[in-house]
Design a protein that fits this description.
With about 240 residues, the chain is α+β, with helices and mostly antiparallel strands. The protein has a domain at about 90-205: Glutathione S-transferase Yfyf (Class Pi), Chain A, domain 2 (Up-down Bundle). The chain contains ten helices and four strands; from the N terminus they run βαβααββααααααα. The protein has helices spanning about 15-25, 30-35, 40-50, 70-80, 90-115, 125-150, 165-180, 185-190, 195-205, 210-215, and strands at about 5, 30, 60-65, 65-70. Strands 2-1-3-4 form a four-stranded mixed beta sheet. Strand 3 and strand 4 form a beta hairpin. The longest helix has 26 residues, at about 125-150. The radius of gyration is 18 Å and the shape is globular.
């Protein structure tokens, strides 16, 4: 069986959190928009056609007759179904909790460049973005990464403990990767304060399960989407 992953083409975005789990787990899936000659029109048409449990927005996954939307919800399903999270209920809920916290930071990172309206251009809200990014750099990056540093303070290399990664580790890797891209000056200043977080980033980058994906054209570069590099928004 191959899952259907529906997400915008051309940007990593929130779909990348799902892709990393599918790729690392060796789970077959189709990039539906990328494979369709209609491109993003196919996505819009598919969303309109969904009458039972319709998704609010991509990414969503079609699996076993289910339509699963919201990144954390998709990963909760994949984690239990494919062993990408601990087997115990406590462990699965803990990894989901970590994922939701990652999602909170992802939303704040996006809002640094679009603090007023997602539908307006950056240039139309540049002053507000500069103010928002200053707070994000100074207060929110240390707060979130400090939390994940605490989670990783035990003897195990992974957030859920044990000797194997979970989907939350993959997601934290992508979050840190996005921050390094969007805020290179700030991350260059604060990264040393979070050695466990940066070590996890290196460990995921070296996972054998992901090397084919990382070297393929399937992995999309940062640019547009959640993590964007604006010189005006970065600083030490």
């Amino acid at each position: 069986m191959s899952y259907e992953l529906w997400y915008w083409d051309g940007i990593p975005g929130r779909g990348e959190f799902v892709r990393l789990a599918l790729e690392a787990g060796g789970i077959p899936y189709r990039e539906c928009v990328r494979e369709s000659p209609d491109g993003e029109e196919a996505l819009l048409a598919d969303m309109r056609a969904r009458r039972v449990h319709p998704p609010f927005a991509p990414p969503y996954l079609v699996a076993d007759g289910l339509v699963l939307a919201q990144t954390a919800n998709i990963l909760l399903y994949l984690g239990e179904r494919h062993g990408l999270a601990p087997a115990s209920l406590e462990g699965r809920l803990w990894v989901n909790q970590l994922q939701l916290t990652i999602a909170d930071m992802v939303a704040e990172a996006h809002d640094t460049h679009h603090p007023i309206s997602a539908s307006a251009y950056f240039e139309e809200q540049k002053d507000e973005a500069i103010r928002r990014a200053k707070v994000f750099r100074g207060e929110r990056i240390p707060k979130f990464l400090g939390y994940f540093e605490q989670v990783l303070s035990g003897p195990e290399a992974w957030m859920a403990g044990g000797d194997r990664w979970s989907y939350a580790d993959l997601s934290l890797y992508h979050l840190v990767d996005g921050l390094l891209y969007a805020f290179p000056k700030r991350m260059g200043t604060v990264a040393a304060r979070f050695p466990n977080v940066m070590a996890l980033h290196r460990h995921v980058a070296a996972l054998p399960e992901l090397q084919d994906y990382f070297s393929s054209g399937r992995r999309l570069p940062f640019g547009e989407g959640i993590f964007r590099r604006y010189r005006e928004l970065d600083g030490k």
